[in-house]
Design goal:
The structure is a homodimer of 205-residue chains.
Chain A lengths: L5 H10 L7 H12 L3 H17 L16 H4 L4 E8 L2 H10 L4 E5 L17 H9 L5 E4 L5 H15 L4 E4 L15 H9 L11
Helix pairs in contact in A: 1-2
Chain lengths: 205, 205
Amino acid sequence: MSISSTLLENAVDQLATLPGIGRRTAMRLALDLLRREPEEVARFSEAVRKMRDEVRYCDVCCNISDEPKCAICRDPNRDASLVCVVEDIRDVIAIENTRQFKGLYHVLGGVISPMDGIGPDDLHTRELMDRVQQGGIRETVLALGGTLEGDTTGFYLNRKLNEHGILVTTIARGISVGAELDQADELTLGRSIADRKPYELGVRR
Amino acid sequence: MSISSTLLENAVDQLATLPGIGRRTAMRLALDLLRREPEEVARFSEAVRKMRDEVRYCDVCCNISDEPKCAICRDPNRDASLVCVVEDIRDVIAIENTRQFKGLYHVLGGVISPMDGIGPDDLHTRELMDRVQQGGIRETVLALGGTLEGDTTGFYLNRKLNEHGILVTTIARGISVGAELDQADELTLGRSIADRKPYELGVRR
């Protein structure tokens, strides 16, 4: 693809660095931006730059926050002895939307991935251990993705947290609510049978 | 989706204004940008702003160009009496890649779309008419998308260009090279039969 303008080419190159955006899509995005008013594009550009330059993280849970301590950690009605460990803010939002969890969070900022050169020290694991050492935490729930990286991270954290004599739990894996058995993959179905539990009516609140 | 940071929320809002990017994808893009070095994000942001602020268009064909006259219009080996009218720079790139066209282009910058409030005056139609009035153009090829908007634009331009007694042609519509007939849609197949032409061996160069 030969582009007649280096200005456009640079913008396409940069947009194509975004995950899931190829050069063809990047060109479509660039042409869309070109059709807008310069002020509108300046606002776009500024919002992205400002986010990266001025971003802050909660001193307690490492969640993204405009204040030194995030709204969840400041909430006195939440159970501070129960901490849910997640990969990133999207998981916090997803769990909050369920309204099933009343503890606090700890945001790792990623998962261990040797392939991408990401080790425990590149994540907020030190901050988690500091929280645990300060005491007051009874249980940590590992709510990590069901991928190889998620499992590796869970394995590492479980060993570390056990050294401090803390109850380590993990979210249940199994068949989705409302799903057909014959459409589930073998691993999930196998896990749901191995992890079977006493029958009860309805969903526990 | 409640986000704990207005900085992040602003960036997600802006990214979600891009075509084909929903809020969930915008969040993924924002988190990817957050993981990068601030200088890298500044380069990203600057490339986008600079493109919009400093973009120039070719004085002749309205294609995006860093110079007052684009490389295609400057090329003395091209046939200046043949002008291909296209929607945007992506179409120029696509046609150039075929190496089948040796004329010049005229980039409209969009198509007529009453639904989006885009009329002929919002496109570079005046510049096209000015070129035609200056003389020297023998044929204009309308290479517009096969959509309702493309057809509307073609209809409008054909009427306008005919007033100047210029040959107006349009690219052939039909079954793709290498495609199966039973997988083509009815409209395309119908058009390819109506527009049938004398049999010849091989592809004409």
